[in-house]
Design brief:
The structure holds two protein chains of two kinds. Chain A starts with a strand and ends with a strand. In chain A, 39% of the residues are buried. In chain A, strand 5 (33-39) and strand 6 form a beta hairpin. By secondary structure, chain A is mainly β. Chain A is built from one helix and twelve strands; from the N terminus they run E-E-E-E-E-E-E-E-E-E-H-E-E. Chain A is globular and about 45 Å long. Helix content of chain A is 3%, strand content 49%. Chain B is mainly β. Chain B is 0% helix and 55% strand. Chain B has no helices and eleven strands. Chain B has strands at residues 4-7, 10-13, 19-25, 31-37, 43-50, 53-57, 64-70, 73-78, 87-94, 105-106, 110-114. In chain B, strands 2, 4, 5, 6, 9, 10 and 11 form a seven-stranded mixed sheet that branches. In chain B, strands 1-3-8-7 form a four-stranded antiparallel sheet, with no helix packed on it. Chain B is globular, with a radius of gyration of 14 Å. Classes of the chains: A mainly beta, B mainly beta. The interface between A and B is medium-sized, with 27 and 30 residues.
Chain lengths: 119, 115
């Protein structure tokens, strides 16, 4: 079974700063998908960024980027120029590829990091 | 149009009652899920359905019974509610194609409070 660990329960930074959220995972699979989801106070789960394990290039989406270290099984999220609207719970998640049953297994989540952006 | 919609958004009920939460997706996905988010915000999968067929049933009490009348709907029925059932329940869907990254689309969640 896969496990996902987020070791930072809460982080707080000033607006406009850069912040990095850490995530490690454990799996015996060689191919898989990794995700960061954001859950603001509205409760909605919003996909921030995804990474496919067979791609060496780190994914980026505007101010959000990841540092994917496959050998270390590490998948950190960097948020640049943080904004007040980035305040939320951030969940790291793992999924096996659909062809290996991942679609049915769904996502395995970490326990989340509560990120607070201070004005 | 909302992609994954759940009703009701909030539900307050007494212990011992039976309640249902409905979920519908208009994305044409073939797989739907129920997740439970506890008071510490931990998200754990409860059920997974693919084309109306149950694929996963994690260690969930049999008081919880999912029902999928068609692949666009997955309802959750809970019998004999207990205090520990208080949580936010999320419905989600995905497309289980080999060419797809399998991203899950979530509903807005249904907060269940058992008194």
């Amino acid at each position: 079974a896969q496990t996902v660990t987020q070791s930072q329960p809460e982080m707080s930074v000033q607006e406009a700063e850069t912040v990095t959220l850490s995530c490690t995972y454990d799996t015996s699979e060689s191919n898989y998908y990794l995700f960061w989801y954001k859950q603001p106070p509205s409760r909605q789960m919003i996909l921030v960024i995804r990474q496919e394990a067979y791609k060496q290039q780190n994914a980026t989406e505007n101010r959000f980027s990841v540092n994917f270290q496959k050998a270390a099984k590490s998948f950190s999220l960097k948020i640049s120029d943080s904004q007040l609207g980035d305040t939320a719970m951030y969940f790291c998640a793992f999924m096996k590829p659909p062809v290996l049953g991942g679609g049915a297994d769904g996502l395995t989540f970490g326990k989340g990091t509560h990120l607070i952006i201070q004005p | 149009d909302t992609a994954v919609s759940q009703t009701p958004k909030y539900l307050v009920t007494q212990m011992g009652n039976d309640k249902s939460i409905k979920c519908e997706q208009n994305l044409g996905h073939d797989t739907m899920y129920w997740y439970k988010q506890d008071s510490k915000k931990f998200l754990k999968i409860m059920f997974s359905y693919n084309n109306k067929e149950l694929i996963i049933n994690e260690t969930v009490p049999n008081r919880f019974s999912p029902k999928s009348p068609d692949k666009a709907h997955l309802n959750l029925h809970i019998n004999s509610l207990e205090l520990g059932d208080s949580a936010v329940y999320f419905c989600a869907s995905s497309q289980r194609k080999t060419s797809d990254t399998g991203e899950l689309f979530f509903g807005e969640g249904s907060r269940l409070t058992v008194l």
